[in-house]
TrEMBL record, chain B:
Location relative to the cell: Cell membrane
GO biological process: transmembrane transport
Name of the protein in its database record: ABC-type dipeptide/oligopeptide/nickel transport system permease component
GO cellular component, one term: plasma membrane
Pfam families: BPD_transp_1, BPD_transp_1_N
Family per similarity comment: Belongs to the binding-protein-dependent transport system permease family.
Domain of life: Bacteria
Alphabetically ordered keywords of this record: Cell membrane, Membrane, Transmembrane, Transmembrane helix, Transport
Annotated PANTHER family: INNER MEMBRANE ABC TRANSPORTER, OLIGOPEPTIDE TRANSPORT SYSTEM PERMEASE PROTEIN APPB
Residue span, ABC transmembrane type-1 domain: 91-290
Membrane topology: Multi-pass membrane protein
């Protein structure tokens, strides 16, 4: 037996040797009793850098909300815009040139005064395509964007350009700058609450890479400790922030846990103060954590996408038939925490109408009749689903069964990676239906209609185009009166609902768990936030 | 031995080229995968494609990757992570997890296998049969989450996930899980091998010559019975990297397996090839070790 123990001994010795390296990390815990601290679980891969201008993901922007402050924000009580860094945001008569005045006396966390130049230079840096920053697209509405980012045909490398600044951005004085847009856009003021437009101080702008793990912000929190790859992100309150709504917590720890089910278990074990409920736990979270959960009103809207490039779907009556064949109540119950969709926008958006969609009521007999009037459907109806989503196949089969039973069509299912589905749709090669969802970047009916239904819109998954709708969007964009603008946008929504390139399915709420120590902020207008939680 | 190391070079080229080709052939655009459903402006896409050489022909991309690996200029992932940083963080995590998992797996496998082999058809033997059947039938995912829930969430004996509690506490639960899912094969092989050897002609001859039972066991049965077992243990060692992917993902351990998973998800050819090369080098080293151990157990193979 001697030789045998030798082998095991070597392995055990190796393990012991390795153990001497140690991890050197102590538990974050919940801190002292007196100090208000919370540990927020984020079910995502750990962040690699913090630069809100180069980030548009939920995790990165979520963390930026603590470290940076926006120009304006939505008041969680009233839903109205409220100034944060801005003193005023004023459009000209046709909403094309916007003047932004900053409040005096604000600084960055390194002590540098916050000026109009910081916005102009940070935004120009982002608008420079060769930097490859993710919020570059935001500036495509600003005059001069095309000179900085010469359009190139798909797949071709854009020509290099020496233009380093947007001609539409002008610094007026130390605290004032103007933004001239390519065309009028009445909703521009709302878009300024996006954290991806945060200013970077001069030392960061000079060498952004050197600061990717030590951000210098202008928000309520700053880094509390060195932050290296694999570490939790520890933040502490920064006294220099003078914004309108200062969060209560003195210390915040963000812990990244890529597996959402594991993050949920960490909460149940008492190691987190806040976590999202993953889609796999939608049916059980209320019993798993009684009295420790909240839900949001809505996180956006979800659709079934009809490919405009497939001639078999051309007849509108066929699209109505598909829509009427879907039992939305049953499907929303399957998804959980969801309501049947009644229009194209989320129910928490100003301008939402409960009766917008004429073809969204389940009626099997009518669906069959519409299909007959449309001349039937030729071939097999394919439903594409995302294989990286835990529920993709289940949802596809649920919809497929409804279409099979209520319309008598043959159905098949194709699982693909999400990026492959998007790529096929972009190149107009996707065969059949797919799912899509949209959550707004700023709370406006326009942020549903423009990306998804405008010709060549950024998120126009269906390849849909209707000049009448485009004209109404442009009219709404040029309308300075908010209520009148909404009425015009609603006309555009009616056209989209008549053409039905996307079939509304459901609107989903999100659920969150929170420890007994905190009460997260729940707002009809801005959703649920752990950052602005109230401590008990 | 030098000859064998040299022979590994062309195999290494073929393996890395093959892995790179597989990643290259995967459907979908890595930059789109990174962006999710968000639209990416053409200018950003072009800048990123140029930065990561995504528009170069396959063989150029492969050679650039190999150059980076050989010169130690690892660069960053598509998500912006410094790859050298990641390796420094992740290699110790995976080594700790894998070695601890293997120790559990080997101890359990050998102990049960030896005992069941010598006392065949006894209670332990029957229990082992049942236990290995259960282990082979229950998916790892179920076992891992059940272990996490029972020992981490309900009983609070061990950390639920992460490495904040350091070694060995943070690694105990995932390593036990790896041990449980892996021990069955080794135990069954050890048992069968002992039974076969004990019934072999040369053992009968030894017994007929009047050798003592202890001497027969230690000098004749065990060395011969353990040869296939050592081979399997070598394969286990090389394969533990694959087993770590699941454990690291569920227990949120920032190891190489989790890194590999993210890289494959994002179709990040360079990282996948880098990690495959590491795994390949480990495989070569382990094979050499197995050969040395072989020689120690069985003098006949020493000069082969």
């Amino acid at each position: 037996m001697r030789r045998l123990t030798g082998v095991v001994g070597v392995a055990a010795g190796l393990a012991l040797l390795l153990s001497s390296c140690g991890d050197g990390k102590s538990s974050g815990g919940s801190g002292d009793a007196g100090s208000k601290s919370e540990v927020i679980g984020i079910a995502a891969d750990p962040l690699e850098y913090i630069n809100p201008l180069n980030d548009n993901g939920t995790a990165g922007i979520g963390v930026s909300m603590a470290i940076f402050a926006p120009l304006v924000t939505t008041d969680p009580e009233t839903g109205k815009l409220q100034n944060v860094m801005a003193d005023s945001v004023t459009p000209d008569q046709n909403s094309q040139t916007w003047t932004i005045k900053l409040k005096p006396g604000n600084t960055f966390q390194n002590g540098q005064a916050l000026t109009a130049k910081d916005y102009v230079d940070s935004w120009n840096l982002t608008a420079e395509g060769s930097n490859g920053w993710k919020n570059n697209g935001f500036f495509s509405k600003v005059e001069g964007y095309d000179a900085m980012n010469p359009p190139a045909p798909d797949g071709a490398t854009p020509k290099p350009t020496s233009v380093k600044a947007l001609s539409g951005l002008k610094q007026v004085d130390n605290l004032t700058f103007t933004v001239k847009l390519k065309v009028p856009f009445s909703q521009f003021g709302l878009t300024l609450q996006y954290y991806g437009l945060a200013p970077l101080p001069e030392e960061v702008r000079k060498n952004p890479d050197a600061y990717k793990r030590k951000p210098i912000g202008n928000g309520p929190y700053k880094l509390a400790a060195d932050w290296n790859a694999g570490d939790d992100l520890k933040l502490t309150k920064w006294d220099g922030y003078k914004g309108p709504t200062i969060p209560q917590a003195d210390q915040i720890t963000y812990r990244f846990i890529p597996n959402a089910d594991t993050a949920y278990n960490e909460f149940l074990a008492g190691n987190l103060d806040f976590v999202d409920v993953p889609s796999t736990k939608v049916k059980s979270f209320k019993t798993d954590a009684p009295d420790q959960w909240v839900t949001s009103v809505s996180s956006g809207a979800n659709y079934l996408v009809i490919p405009a490039w497939d001639a078999r779907f051309k007849n509108p009556k066929l699209r109505y038939a598909i829509s009427a064949a879907i039992d939305r109540k049953a499907f929303a119950d399957l998804v959980g925490l969801s309501e049947p969709a009644k229009g194209l926008i989320a129910p928490d958006i100003a301008g939402y109408r409960d009766d917008a969609c004429k073809y969204c009521d389940f009626d099997a007999a009518k669906a069959k009749q519409l299909l007959q009037e449309a001349g039937g459907f030729s071939g097999v109806l394919n439903i594409n689903y995302n294989t990286t989503s835990a529920t993709g196949q289940i949802y596809a089969e649920a919809i497929g069964n409804m279409l099979r039973q209520n319309l008598g069509v043959q159905v098949k299912y194709t699982g693909k990676q999400g990026s492959e589905i998007t790529e096929l749709a972009d190149t107009r090669k996707l065969d059949g239906l797919r799912f899509s969802g949209w959550g707004h970047d700023y709370p406006s009916i326009e942020d549903y209609l423009t990306p998804m239904f405008k010709s060549n819109g950024d998120a126009n998954f269906a390849g849909y185009a209707n000049p009448a709708l485009d004209a109404l969007l442009a009219k709404g964009d040029a309308e300075p009166d908010p209520d009148k603008a909404i009425a015009v946008y609603q006309q555009a929504e009616d056209i989209a609902l008549e053409d039905l390139p996307l079939i509304p399915l459901y609107t989903k709420s999100n659920a969150y768990l929170h420890s007994a120590k905190i009460a997260p902020r729940v707002s009809k207008y801005v959703g649920v936030s752990a950052l602005w939680a109230t401590f008990k | 031995m030098l000859r064998r190391v040299l022979a590994a070079v062309p195999i290494g080229v073929i393996v890395t080229l093959g892995v790179f080709a597989l990643v290259f052939a995967m459907p979908g655009d890595p930059l789109r995968e990174l962006a999710g459903d968000k639209p990416i402006p053409a200018a950003v896409l072009a800048a990123k494609r140029a930065q990561y050489h995504l528009d170069d022909p396959f063989i150029v991309q492969y050679l650039l990757s190999m150059k980076d690996i050989l010169t130690g200029h690892f660069g960053t992932t598509f998500a912006g992570a410094d790859i050298a940083d990641q390796l420094r963080l992740r290699i110790p995590v995976t080594l700790k997890l894998a070695s601890m998992g293997l120790v559990f797996q080997w101890i359990a496998g050998l102990l049960f296998g030896l005992y069941a082999g010598f006392r065949r058809n006894g209670t332990v033997d029957r229990m082992l049969l049942l236990a290995t059947l259960v282990v082979l039938a229950v998916p790892g995912l179920v076992l891992y989450f059940t272990g996490q829930y029972l020992l981490g969430v309900e009983l609070k004996w061990l950390p639920v996930s992460g490495i904040r509690d350091g070694w060995p506490l943070s690694y105990l639960l995932p390593a036990v899980c790896i041990g449980i899912t892996g021990f069955a094969g080794l135990a069954r092989l050890t048992r069968t091998s002992i039974v076969d050897t004990a019934n072999a002609d040369f053992v009968k001859t030894a017994r007929a010559k009047g050798l003592g039972e202890q001497r027969i066991l230690w000098r004749h049965v065990l060395p011969n019975a353990l040869l296939p077992v050592v081979t399997l243990m070598g394969i286990d060692l090389a394969g533990i990297f694959g087993g770590a992917v699941l454990a690291e993902s569920i227990f949120n351990l920032p190891g190489l397996g989790q890194f590999m998973f993210q890289a494959i998800k994002l179709k990040e050819g360079g990282v996948v090839v880098l990690l495959s090369t590491l795994a390949f080098l480990m495989f070569i080293v382990i094979n050499l070790i197995v050969d040395v151990v072989y020689g120690a157990i069985d003098p006949r193979v020493r000069n082969v």
